[in-house]
Amino acid sequence: MSRLTFFDHDADEGFEAEAATLAGIWDLSAQGLLTVMTDPANVRREDVARIEVEGLDLADLLVESLTELLFRFEVDGLLTAGLNDVTIVQTDEGAHASFQLLG
C-alpha cells in the first residue's frame, strides 16, 4: 500500500510518504515535492535524465535526492513528475541512489 499525506508545516507544507519499498518511497517523495511546487497534472511523465546521488545513510540519501530535484528545477526548469527504475543501496560506507527522472 502506498500513501502520500500532506500536512501544514511551519516552513510551508509537509508531506509523509509511505510505501512497501524504498523505491516507492523515493517515487512518492518526488511526487510530493512536485505537488507542493505546482499542479502535477501540468507535468508530462517522460524519461528526461538519469540521476546518481550519494548519502551518509538512507535518511540523508532521501534529503540529497530531493535536493537534487530542487536543483534540477532551479537550474534546468525541470519539474519531476516521478521516478522510474529506482535503485537504492546501503552499505557500511554510506548509501547510493540511482533513478530515472520523469519530467
Query: Runs with pLDDT <50, length 5+?
Result: none
First-last Cα distance:
24 Å
Task: Please tell me the overall pLDDT.
Answer: 91
Helix-strand pattern, N to C? EEHEHEE
Beta-strand content bin: 35-45%
Question: Largest sheet, described in full?
Answer: 3 strands, antiparallel
Shape: globular
Number of strands: 5
Which structural class should the secondary elements be placed in?
alpha+beta
Strand order of the largest sheet: 3-5-4
Percentage of residues in helical conformation: 25-40%
Q: Tell me the radius of gyration.
A: 13 Å
Number of helices: 2
Blueprint (SSEs and pairs):
Elements: E1 3-8, E2 13-18, H1 22-37, E3 47-55, H2 58-76, E4 82-91, E5 94-102
Antiparallel strand pairs: 1-2, 3-5, 4-5
Structural overview:
By secondary structure, this protein is of the alpha+beta class. It is 34% helix and 39% strand. The protein is built from two helices and five strands; from the N terminus they run E-E-H-E-H-E-E. It has helices at 22-37, 58-76; strands at residues 3-8, 13-18, 47-55, 82-91, 94-102. The strands form two sheets. Strands 3-5-4 form a three-stranded antiparallel sheet. A hairpin with a 4-residue loop joins strand 1 and strand 2 (13-18). It is globular, with a radius of gyration of 13 Å. The two termini are 24 Å apart.
